[in-house]
Design brief:
Number of helices: 11
Strand order of the largest sheet: 4-3-2-1-5
Structural class: alpha+beta
Number of strands: 5
Distance between the termini: 23 Å
Largest sheet: 5 strands, mixed
Order of helices and strands: HEEEEHHHHHHHHHHE
Shape: rod-shaped
Radius of gyration: 32 Å
Strand content: 5-15%
Helix content: 40-55%
Length: 320
């Protein structure tokens, strides 16, 4: 029997083959060009007395038997790839933390801009129509007014307007780009954590998002406590004439801090759930089924069957 070395098998001009009537059912890349050999007829190399598969792309003969294990260089390359992936996961976590942290304040700022155009600041200049409004508005005009007292007026205004917000204007603000970035980061995170199942990847992303959003809420509440005098706000010294606007914006940030945190977490959940189905759908749409072996981890990681073309009707099949 001739030796089974890869060099002899890869010299098709010196090897005589004959058909076996079988075709390869499993996915296996060509050793020469990487073409997926699924569905390719299996031949018998007469001189070598082994089964081979001729690549329809480059003509290379591939032995049906398994390939030898990876050498040290390939193992080191795999280690480098793992380190790069961990680095990308860490970088994604840092960006996700920063965006989630900032989204807490941005939601309140967006709500302030939305309501400011509906007469919020004009409400502060009025005397109020009810005794509760009159008392609250009188307090905020005193020199020792606190942020908590301003927030009371904001709540009365929301009650007065029945919380009718301009969500069209809200989502035209900076909150939309932030949520878009959060969605993209959730998708990237889910794909970077392959071959972990999507549930684990999603839980990890949500945990990071919750920690970041929680830290943002805690930082906001600590820097702007309810008993802080409005005169002590950092922006009060820069533009005293716009102090009511600054205080109202700070109050909105506190009022809607948890809303911003919740929206970030919900966006992460949605992106984590949709990431891999979107990736699988994109590959199936853009790549022929016989070439999907390179991304089979997208299916196997979540316990899904790998899509494969239907075997030829006139050829029996054999498992690889």
């Amino acid at each position: 029997m001739a030796p089974l070395g890869g060099g002899m098998v890869n010299e098709p001009t010196n090897i005589t083959t004959e058909p076996t009537g079988f075709a390869l059912e499993g996915h296996r890349p060509c050793q020469h060009c990487g073409y997926d050999l699924v569905g390719t007829p299996i031949e018998r190399a007469i001189d070598l007395e082994i089964a081979v598969i001729r690549c329809p792309e480059c003509g290379n003969l591939n032995p049906l038997i398994g390939t030898p294990p990876l050498g040290p260089f390939a193992q080191r390359a795999a280690m480098v790839g793992t380190l790069v992936r961990l680095l990308l996961i860490g970088l994604t976590s840092i960006i996700l933390w920063t965006v989630a942290f900032n989204s807490v304040e941005e939601w309140g700022e967006s709500m302030y801009r939305s309501q400011a155009n509906q007469g919020l600041m004009a409400f502060f200049k009025r005397n109020g129509d009810t005794p509760e409004e009159q008392q609250a508005l009188e307090v905020v005009h005193e020199d020792d007014a606190t942020l908590g007292e301003f927030i009371t007026v904001l709540k009365l205004y929301q009650k007065r307007t029945d919380s009718k917000y301009d969500f069209g204007e809200l989502f035209q603000s900076q909150i939309t780009p932030l949520l878009t970035v959060v969605f993209i980061l959730g998708v990237v995170w889910s794909l970077l954590l392959l071959p972990q199942r999507w549930i684990r990847a999603g839980v990890a992303a949500v945990v990071v998002g919750m920690l970041a959003a929680g830290a943002g809420v805690a930082s906001l509440f600590a820097s702007k406590p309810l008993d802080m005098l409005v005169q002590d706000l950092p922006m009060a010294a820069y533009d005293p004439d716009r102090l009511p606007s600054f205080v109202a914006e700070s109050g909105m940030e506190r009022l809607f801090a948890f809303h911003g945190a919740g929206v970030v977490v919900i966006t992460l959940v949605i992106s984590s759930v949709l990431a891999r189905p979107l990736a699988r759908g994109a590959f199936r749409l853009l790549v022929p089924l016989e070439h999907l072996s390179g991304v089979e981890v997208l299916w196997k990681a979540d316990g899904l069957p790998m899509p494969s073309p239907a075997p030829s009707k006139d050829q029996p099949t054999v498992e690889s």
